[in-house]
Amino acid sequence: MVRFIVRRLLVLLITLLAVSAATFAIPYASGGDPVRTILRSRVSDQALDPSAIAALRSELGLDRPILVQYLSWLGRAVRGDFGMSFTSRTPVDQLLGTAIGVSGTLAVIAIGLAFLAALPLGTLAAMRPGKRVDNGVTLLTQSFVAVPEYWLAPILVLVFSRYLGWLPSAGWRDPTSIILPALTLALRPMAYFTQVTRAAMSDVLASPYMTAARSRGLSGGQALLRHGLRNALLPVMTLFSLWFAGLLGGSVVVEVIFAIPGMGRLVYSAVVNHDVPLIQGGILCTVALAVLITTVTDLLYALINPAVRVRDGAV
Amino acid sequence: MNKPRLALVLIATTLTLTSCGMGGQTSSGGGATGARSIVVDEPFAPAANWALETDDSFVLSKAGCLETLVKYQTGGGIKPMLAASWKQTRPTTWDFTLRPGVTFQDGTPLDAKAVAGALKHALAAKTPAPGFSPETIAAVTAVDGSTVRITTPAPDALLPYRLAAPNTGILAPKAYTGSSTNPEGTCTGPFRITKEIPQQAIQLKRNPKYWNGPVKLASAEVRFIADGAKRATQIQTGEAQISRKLPVPSVQDLKGNSSVEVLTEQLPRTTELVLNNKKAPFDNEKVRQAFQAAIDTKAITNAVYQGAGQQAVGPFGPGEPWTPDGAAPVKADPAKAKALLSEAGVKPESIKVSLIAYNEGSGFSDLAAIIQQELKAIGVKASIRTADYASVEPDLLSGDFDAALLSRNHLGDMPDPLGYLTADYTCKGSYNLSHYCDPKTDGLIKKAASAKDPDTRYADYAKVAAELQSRAVDVFLVHETESVAVASGLKGFAVHPYYTLTANLSLGTK
Questions:
Q1: Distance from C-alpha of B432 to C-alpha of B441, rounded to nearest angstrom
Q2: Choosing among A98, A151, A305, A309, which should be mutated to test the B contact, i.e. which has the most B CBs within 10 A?
């Protein structure tokens, strides 16, 4: 187990270093003068004062060689200091804190909704293979997989905000404003979770230990709850962690359409404005969280399935 | 794996979340509710922690919080605001007499010391606003309790205009004591910020001690919604009462809605085709005029802007005080364009130009495609290059391009086009993308800058504008407009680049 965690930490470290070096180069790789872009994000006038450009370049330390800038940033980042945003001059960790809180809440609710809907739907389809329910669930999930968020979100707004007037069309203010973006984000993972649950549950239902459980006198429902679900959950969990990690990084489309101040919108505008400290902090946090979540999932996987523990020698 | 180990991993995850700032503020809050409250949807959120030298000052001014010494009136005029009067006592010295009895929202008096301190703070910014920087201002001093003296390095007839820009807004001394500017309770305007929801909204309540009479609305909320279609939706659902900067398709959609009024006003912004005057073939005036004659601005206005724009008559739009009398759009005439090319001794098929259409320009790819077709009609081959503005700007500034589409605000720094003309059309202009250089134009602009009388100055600007148009320095295409949707029942609203929430706004229900 210790070896497993150390290996994962090493992977995390190498990934973070590679990602930080790559993101540092973004403003320079895209051409143009990063200082002009930063200044223009704060002042809409296109004619920039040359003395203001020089002053900002010096203030931000962008007149130094790029390697020196990178190492200086890395030195501070190791101590947990991501610096100040170039455009807003606000500490990066403060900006990220707010945004991760928002994206995290949205991700938890969206994934939770997807999970809660997928589990019964997938199980039901697996229990009635080839029947109407199964075909209906398959049709539904395949349709949901194909629906893009940029189409679904305006449709939901049109129906629930404009015509019915039940829900707010944008913002991040009270529980009602979470419903539409969470639904938009939940639909696709729900479809995937359902499909995977159905496949896993089909295997489980056909396995000898389920027959053995029934022969010991357990009802169909009891056997399913005590033995079936636990085993069928394993592949769903893997998928769950991947989606969760992805959503934590924020969804640019959904966050822009619903005016949600999450990670996706924050990092996107940072990239547009060449706000290097914010890009770095945002991407590093997202990558770190993704690696940590998959690590936790692997550990949970072992907890749920003893066979994994024995095979990997994790006990 | 045992449970304590699992718990350790979970704690590590939690710690990482915390280090990434999970402990930061979470957004919450309610909207402006009640019959005497309104919601305003704006496209741009504050981006620089309320630094007044940035566009954040415009957000505060539109929100009815920040005020300046001088007020800008639509149409180019100025009138007193926090300053009751002003006088040029010497060529480089102006004295501003403050309006008596004005207090900041924190109760402290608006006196000369506070005003001088605020203006000095604006000058001390590391990247000051172009219209009010140490290059244009030498010193600011409090002469007595109610007089502020501003000296300039050279005679500057435009100083009062500079002091109308929101970048020169006045906040109470308390606003500048922290690491960043704090406008909460430190403005003088009709509305006081009570809560900021980062990147989402600011909530405001009326200032009961407003110096310019009672404020009719009780409260308001300004929401920052980047998506134009969403701003239009919010006015349809009744979630907002004013939605600014609506996209053209939404305007068409809203026109059939009886509960919403759409107001469209001309902006001080023109879309133009910048021609590189120092590079062949555009170093030849006849060729530039041929391009001007070949491009059908009427077709462009209808096709790309769907009528939400006006055919350009030059750099300035019709109705502006510095627009030449009788200025009219150039009529598209392909035959004349061919004749001009012939006069220039240039065969159309020998011209191969590259048009830059930067991605951030609204409708620029469509615009470039139409121009490409119109040039093809006179035998000129044009290719289109699309890229982000940041990546093409070095080429634009260095002159390594043929032609480029550009959307340009001519009142960006102050309510007077001097800064624009100087930057874009003088030989040493910092944003002279057309690389146009004519000592006669430089002389006219310099003369205008020193004219105390606005009419004299405007006449000089008009001469420059006429020159730019007649010599086809650039091809001016469309004067842009801004469409604002207003809920019916809202009274006292007028589209203005600096002010949205004012003391006169009312819902008319109570």
A1: 13
A2: A98
Q: What is the rounded distance in angstroms from the CA atom of residue B309 to the CA atom of residue B253?
A: 17
Q: Are A248 and A289 in contact (CB under 8 A)?
A: yes
Which residues of chain B from 22 to 41 reach within 8 Å of chain A, CB to CB?
Answer: 22-31
Q: Which residues of A touch B225 (CB under 8 A)?
A: 170, 259
Q: Average pLDDT for residues A81-87, to the nearest whole number?
A: 83
Q: A229 to chain B, minimum CA–CA distance in Å?
A: 21
Distance from CA of A242 to the nearest CA of B (A): 15
Residues B151-210 pLDDT 10s? 999 999 899 999 999 999 999 999 999 888 999 999 999 999 999 887 789 999 999 999
H-helix segments, A157-272:
175-205, 208-215, 220-223, 229-248, 252-257, 263-272
CB contact under 8 A, B27 and A173: yes
Mean pLDDT of chain B: 89
For residue B32, is pLDDT > 70? no
| Tokens linked to B93 | 């010295």
pLDDT digits (tens, 9 = 90+) for A186-224: 999 999 999 999 998 888 888 888 788 778 777 777 777
* Domain locations in chain A as residue ranges: 92-311
Kindly report the pTM of this predicted structure.
Answer: 0.80
- Interface pTM, i.e. ipTM: 0.72
Smallest CA–CA distance, residue A107 to chain B, in Å, is 14
Is the domain spanning A92-311 CATH 1.10.3720.10? The answer is yes
